[in-house]
Write a structure and sequence with these properties.
signal, Secreted protein, mainly alpha, about 130 residues, elongated, Four Helix Bundle (Hemerythrin (Met), subunit A)
Amino acid sequence: MNLTQPKLRLAATALAAALAVPALTSCDAISTAMDCANTAVAITNGVNNLQQAVSNAGNSVQDTQNALNQIDTDLKKIKDQTGNADLGKAVDSMTTAVKNVRTSVEQGNTAPDIKPVADAAAEISKVCTPG
């Protein structure tokens, strides 16, 4: 499932943009950029792991559960560390998407639709993209 690849590139672009914030920017903007940089890395890794786990779900549904658990952990850390309202909303949206995938897996679906997770990751990247 290559649906997430453009989304992952967008997350990586957001990370690069966030790190390119000029040094004379206000502390709040730097804080937001760092939140976004941390977010982009965690989300990119999590979505990659989820994509791989879902692709191999016939081998081990537990891998999918593990990937979802890691994304949940990363999202909770990000939510706890950010003071940015827009980023918080985007994280909440991704948390809901992950919860829906988890429910689908728990109901026996070995090939859940992870597109909403990728879409939520793209929304996080959009929030993190300056300008």
